[in-house]
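Q: Structure tokens for this one, please.
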Amino acid sequence: MTRTTTTGKTKKWVGLALTMIMGVSLLAGCSSPSNQESAEGGATTNGERVTLKVEVFDRGNSPSPHTITNNYLTKFVQEKFGDPNNIDVQFVPVQRSEETTKLNVLMASPSDVPDIVFVYDSSVFYRYAQQGGLTEVGELLNEHAPNLKEYLGEDLLKFGQLEGQQFAIPGKRAITARYNSYIRQDWLDKVGMNAPTTTDELYETLKAFKEKDPGNLGSKNIPMGMALAPAQYETLIYSFIKPVQDGLTYSQRYELPLHDGFKDAMQFLNKLYNEGLISKDFSLDEEKTQLVKDFQNGNIGYMSEDVGQILYADGMLDNLSKNVPDSKVVAVDAYTNANVDNKHIKSRYGSNGMYIMIPKSSKRSVEAVKYLDWMASGTNLLEMNTGVEGENYDKVDGVPVVKDDAPQDVKDRVYNGGDMAIIANGKVVGDQAANEAAWIAGFPERNQELMRQSIDIANTDTIGPVIFSKPIEAESKYGTALNDKLKVLIVKTAMAKPADFEAVYEKEMNDFMSLGGTELKKELEAALQ
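A: Here is the predicted structure, written as tokens:
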């Protein structure tokens, strides 16, 4: 209850910030000298040293002695880009879990907002663009960013356009594979079953895991690991919902309830919960903290996760192997969708990554574009992602292969590489096949074969997001409230007594639709036409 109350207060605070965005802070300043300079492509420095402020995600994982604003890569950027261009590059940390909330507050304060900001949510980008809060960068790219334009390509750049104007620079996604599932082969062996290949077989397997307790865990036995996180609930939901058009679904997570088949997914989750087949307290585990612990301790028989998430060095699988030496994990493609020819339907990412933006209030728009162009030049992107050749990695058949035996301080150089190299989501070294090879090579050799299998499964029977040519107004208006409501809907319908499921589902869906779902559905269906 405390979390709900705090969130409510935060929303009121953010609402005030958004009011500022819609009113004075972003729009009223458009005629000021600083904004006029920005609109014309940035202030002329006349050789004076200037400061470029760049947002960076802070995940709280900086290894000693590094901090998120003072580490190998921040020094690399300053030395290779900043100093030669008479620019001090200042990184502004934003907690990953609070990216949109914090960005709304920053955007409401022109004096505090960085010169380069970014967001994954297209509706947030569109809102900023429509409200006049962003610099139009089309001419800036033409004049100062030939490498960046070549790297992204015209088709990808369109993701950052509104009514033909370039208000964002899309990151390029290296790989579109999204989710994968894993199962304990040693548990299957003990219960005498093969790996499940359909949703029905998965259910029977989970029941066997509970009844026969192959791990001898007693009350700690969790047949299926579950958290209130997308990698867990989306994989289940996609095995029931129907695409809305040509094998595509709506793009926003909170739009899942608008698909036919969503109710069936919730009923299946309710069944799993009431039969004790999933993590009992999943509703309290939005950050997956308990899920990770349970998996590493050997308590979980089956779970879904982001591709490769369990396979990093000293990660979930390695820790499981230490804690339960006889354990064996295999990749599995269990969920099947009866609404789509019983295929193993799962979602994939779009080709674009985050939306990189320059606020209208920025005086450093030229420097910002030059920085992104520098990142796309030469080997800068590779070094930011992978480190130094010969020390962090070797090239094998043109693919950078991480050196497992590199000293820890060398490995720590690029602990935040993915968050610093913002024009790429993942390691972009070529086409998707090359990117996948590079991704696999970045894992410990002992986990690479399982990673290959994981990617193959994650790329099977995928459906992507619908990309509309114009923003969906209702997404901007209702997205935050509906995203919060989705979580409530999942939890309450899952935990309802089976006899109460229909009533609980109807009530929660009515609430969802009244919070903006009805208006959103009408606009989405109209846009499909």
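A few notes: The chain is about 45% helix and 15% strand. The longest helix spans residues 501-528.
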